[in-house]
Design brief:
heterodimer; A: alpha+beta; Aminopeptidase; Alpha-Beta Plaits; 2 domains; eight-stranded mixed sheet; four-stranded antiparallel sheet; B: alpha/beta; Spore Coat Polysaccharide Biosynthesis Protein SpsA, Chain A; about 20% strand
C-alpha cells in the first residue's frame, strides 16, 4: 500500500515536472546543439565524448571517466549510505551514422531543432548531459547512484561494442537501466527481437566483350542472390522478416560493376528462427558460387538474441502509468539496440523516447521542442520510481 | 617594426587561453564590469535561434558572464524577431530606438543605437550569421577587456594565416582585407597591419570608447572604428583574439565590390579629417602580412617597389627611330 501511495505521489507530480522543466529549455537545447555539431561517426566519437565528460565535470559528478572503448561515464551519488546504494544506469549512444565531412550544423526554429543526427541521438545525449541539472532544478535527490553513460561504437559495425564492454567490465553492478533515444516520445521498448545483420559481397571478373550476349558483372549475381533470399518463407507468427537495407554498387551507365554489396537484417520473435534463415542465406551463396563464375561472401555484422522483461513487469507497468499521466499513448516497439545488451545481462531495462520528430537519418532530421518536456518528465518520474524500489520484480 | 612585434606578443590571444570561465567571472565581478551582448540582425531567422540558445544557456544560465543579450533588428521580414524573443533575448527594432535621430538602414546604425539602448560597461558585438556559434565568440573577446585595463577594443580573427609550403595561406573570408584594407594600412598606417582581420564583425569594446567615435552606418564601420580608436589611443588600446574557425555565408564578388567601395569612402574621409590628404606621409614600400606558427604570430614583410618608366616619346632613341620632331 505504501508503495502504491509513493507511486501515486510521483504520478501526481509528473505534469508539474513537465512545466517546471520548461525553465531549463535553453540548457537542454544547447546541450543537444553542442553535442550534435560535433561529428561522431562510429569509432570516431572521441570529441563528442570529451564534450560529455566536460559537462559531467561542470555538473560536479563523481567517477568521471572514459574506458578502453571511449565510453563516457559519471556517477551522481545517491543519498543512502554507500553500502546500501544500488546503481541505476541511464545510457544514450554517442555515435551517429554521419561521417565527419557532413555539415553538422543544427538550426533552431521556434518549434524544432533540425540537423543530421539531432534525433539519433544528439537529443538522447543531451538528456544524459542535462540530467544532473534537471534533478537539481526539480529538487530531487535520488537515494541510489545514478550512473550516466554515453555509449560508443553502438551503430552499424560498432555492434554495441561500447555498452557491451561497459556491462562486462564496469565495477558497478547495475540494478536497472533506461536507454534514451531522441525519438519517439511514447516509445516503450522492453523486449528485443532476435536479429542478425549481414553483408553479402560479390566480386566478379571484369567484362571485356559486350558481344558475349549474357549479362555480366556483380550486379547480376547480387540480383540472383536477392531473388532467392526473397523466396525464403518468413512466418507471420512468430513475426519474422528480412529487411533489405541497401545495395552498393556501380559507377557508370556502361560498365558492369566488379563489386556489389547487399546489406540486410533478419528479425524474428522466435529463438532459433534467425539462425535458420542465416543458414539458408549461406546455402544460397554457396549455390550461386557453384553455378556461376561468381565470388560471393557473407559476413555477419551483428547478432542479437530475442528476450525481454514482459508487458506486466513492474518497470513496464510503471512506465505505462507515467505515460498515461502525461497523456502519452505507449507505443510498444521491440528494440534491436542497446536494450538487448542490458536484457542479455539480466538487467531490467527499458528504452524510452524523448520527443517527436521527422526525417530520421536524413540530413534534415528534426525534433520538436515542446514534447521534449514531456519526455524529460517521464524519465525523471521513471528514475524516482526505480529509485524508490517501485519497479522491482518481486513487488 | 618593433611596436608590431611587441604588440603581437602582448595583445594577440587565442580563445583557448581563456578556458577558465569561472575565473573570468570572478575577475569580472571583482572589477564590477557589466557586459552586454549585441547581435545586429536583418533576416537572420536561420541562425539567430541557435546563437541565442547557446549564449543564454552557456553564458547567462550556466555561467553568468553576460548581463544582457539584445537583438537590434533593422526590420526583418522573416521570423528573426519572433525566434529571438521566444528564446529570451531582448529584441529591439532599430527604428524605435532614439526616434528623435530617425532611422538609417545599415548594420552600423544598429551598433550605434545599441550604445544608447544597452546598459553594459562593455558591449560585445557578434554577427547573427555564424553557423558554428560557440561561447568562444564572446569569451574570447571580452576576456582581454576583463583581465587587462589598458585594452579597450578587442577584435576577432579566424582561420589563422598558417605558413605552408607555397607561402602564406590566405585567411578565410578576408578577401577585402587582403586586397584592399591591408595594402591601404601598409601604405598609410603600417602599425594597423598588425590587426589580422580588421573587418571581422565580432568585437568587444568599452563604453567610453564607443561613446566618442562616430559610426558609419554601412560597410565602413569597422574601418572607421579602427582608424579613430588608433588615432586617439594608439595600437596599445587594441587586442585581437584568434577564435579559430567561423562558418558563415560567403559573399559574392559583386557584394565584396560594394563593400570595398564603402570602405574606401570611409578611409578617404578619415584621411581628410586627419588632415593627411594635403600632406600624405612618405609612402612605404613595405607590404605587411602575417603568419602564425603554433600560437605565435609574426609579420612577414615584402618590399614592393612600383617603379615607372617615362612615356616612350620622351626617349631620344625612340624619337630618332620614328622621326619625331625634337
Amino acid at each position: 500500500m505504501q508503495r502504491q501511495s509513493d507511486l501515486d505521489d510521483i504520478l501526481s507530480a509528473v505534469p508539474g515536472y513537465r512545466e517546471r522543466l520548461r525553465e531549463l529549455r535553453e540548457i537542454v537545447l544547447a546541450n543537444a546543439i553542442m553535442a550534435g555539431e560535433i561529428p561522431a561517426p562510429t569509432f570516431e566519437e572521441a570529441q563528442r565524448v570529451r564534450f560529455l565528460c566536460d559537462r559531467f565535470t561542470e555538473s560536479d559528478l563523481n567517477n568521471i571517466s572514459t574506458d578502453e572503448k571511449e565510453n563516457a561515464t559519471a556517477v551522481l551519488p545517491g543519498s543512502l549510505p554507500e553500502r546500501e546504494r544500488k546503481n541505476i544506469l541511464v545510457a544514450a549512444h554517442v555515435d551517429t551514422i554521419w561521417s565527419a565531412n557532413v555539415d553538422h550544423s543544427v538550426s533552431v526554429g521556434t518549434d524544432a531543432l533540425v540537423g543530421p543526427g539531432i534525433a539519433d541521438n544528439s537529443l538522447g545525449l543531451a538528456v544524459i548531459a542535462s540530467l544532473p541539472a534537471i534533478l537539481d532544478h526539480l529538487g530531487i535527490r535520488l537515494q541510489n547512484n545514478l550512473v550516466l553513460l554515453g555509449a560508443t561504437r553502438s551503430m552499424g559495425k560498432g555492434d554495441l561494442e561500447g555498452l557491451r564492454f561497459f556491462i562486462e567490465n564496469a565495477k558497478l553492478p547495475i540494478a536497472a537501466a533506461l536507454c534514451i533515444e531522441g525519438l519517439h516520445l511514447g516509445r516503450l521498448s522492453y523486449s528485443c527481437i532476435g536479429m542478425m545483420r549481414g553483408e553479402i559481397t560479390v566480386r566478379a571478373p571484369e567484362a571485356t566483350d559486350w558481344k558475349q550476349g549474357e549479362a555480366t558483372g556483380s550486379l547480376v549475381h547480387i540480383h540472383r542472390i536477392l531473388s532467392r533470399i526473397l523466396a525464403i518463407p518468413t512466418p507471420q507468427h512468430p513475426k519474422t522478416s528480412i529487411v533489405l537495407g541497401s545495395i552498393i554498387t556501380g559507377t557508370a551507365y556502361n560498365i558492369s560493376p566488379r563489386k556489389a554489396q547487399l546489406r540486410f537484417e533478419v528479425r524474428s520473435e522466435q529463438a532459433g528462427m534467425v539462425s535458420r534463415i542465416q543458414e539458408q542465406i549461406e546455402e544460397i551463396i554457396e549455390e550461386v558460387n557453384a553455378e556461376r563464375d561468381a565470388n560471393a561472401t557473407f559476413t555477419r555484422i551483428a547478432r542479437r538474441k530475442p528476450g525481454g522483461i514482459g508487458f506486466h513487469h513492474p518497470l513496464v507497468k510503471t512506465a505505462r502509468k507515467i505515460m498515461g499521466q502525461l497523456n502519452l499513448q505507449p507505443k510498444i516497439a521491440p528494440s534491436t539496440s542497446e536494450l538487448s545488451v542490458l536484457l542479455d545481462a539480466g538487467i531490467s531495462s527499458l528504452t524510452l523516447g524523448v520527443s517527436k520528430g521527422d526525417n530520421r537519418h536524413e540530413l534534415n532530421e528534426s525534433v520538436l521542442i515542446d514534447p521534449i518536456f514531456s519526455g524529460l518528465a517521464q524519465i525523471v518520474a521513471m528514475l524516482q520510481a526505480i529509485d524508490g524500489g517501485l519497479c522491482d520484480e518481486d513487488d | 617594426m618593433k611596436t608590431i612585434d611587441t604588440w603581437l606578443e602582448t595583445n594577440t590571444f587565442h580563445h583557448g587561453t581563456f578556458w577558465d570561465i569561472l575565473h573570468l567571472i570572478k575577475v569580472k565581478e571583482e572589477k564590477g564590469i557589466t557586459i552586454s551582448l549585441c547581435i545586429p540582425t536583418l533576416n537572420e531567422a536561420k541562425t539567430i535561434g541557435k546563437e541565442i540558445v547557446i549564449f543564454k544557456s552557456e553564458l547567462m544560465d550556466r555561467y553568468p558572464l553576460i548581463d544582457e543579450i539584445a537583438v537590434i533588428d533593422s526590420g526583418s521580414e522573416d521570423d528573426t524577431r519572433e525566434i529571438a524573443t521566444s528564446y529570451g533575448a531582448d529584441v529591439y527594432l532599430s527604428g524605435e530606438i532614439l526616434p528623435s535621430q530617425g532611422f538609417k538602414s545599415g548594420k552600423g546604425e544598429n551598433l550605434w543605437k545599441a550604445i544608447y539602448q544597452l546598459n553594459g560597461d562593455v558591449i560585445c558585438y557578434v554577427d547573427a550569421d555564424i553557423k558554428n556559434i560557440h561561447t568562444r565568440f564572446v569569451t574570447g573577446l571580452v576576456a582581454p577587456l576583463i583581465y587587462n585595463d589598458s585594452i579597450h577594443y578587442v577584435k576577432a580573427f579566424y582561420d589563422r594565416p598558417l605558413a605552408f609550403s607555397q607561402g602564406i595561406r590566405p585567411s578565410g573570408g578576408g578577401r577585402v582585407t587582403e586586397i584592399l584594407v591591408r595594402p591601404l594600412f601598409s601604405l598609410f598606417f603600417p602599425e594597423l597591419t598588425a590587426l589580422i582581420q580588421p573587418l571581422s564583425g565580432e568585437y568587444a569594446v568599452r563604453r567610453p570608447v564607443l561613446e566618442e567615435v562616430p559610426f558609419p552606418i554601412g560597410y565602413g564601420v569597422e574601418t572607421s572604428h579602427i582608424l579613430d580608436v588608433y588615432r586617439k589611443y594608439g595600437l596599445e588600446a587594441f587586442g585581437q583574439t584568434d577564435l579559430d574557425q567561423r562558418i558563415h555565408r560567403n559573399q559574392t564578388t559583386l557584394d565584396l565590390g560594394k563593400m570595398s567601395f564603402g570602405i574606401l569612402q570611409t578611409f578617404l574621409r578619415r584621411l581628410e579629417s586627419f588632415e593627411m590628404v594635403g600632406q600624405l606621409p612618405e609612402m612605404s614600400n613595405i607590404f605587411r602580412q602575417f603568419q602564425a606558427e603554433g600560437k605565435d604570430y609574426e609579420q612577414v614583410t615584402r618590399e614592393i617597389i612600383e617603379e615607372e618608366r617615362p612615356p616612350m616619346n620622351s626617349i631620344p632613341e625612340y624619337r630618332e627611330k620614328f622621326n619625331l620632331e625634337s
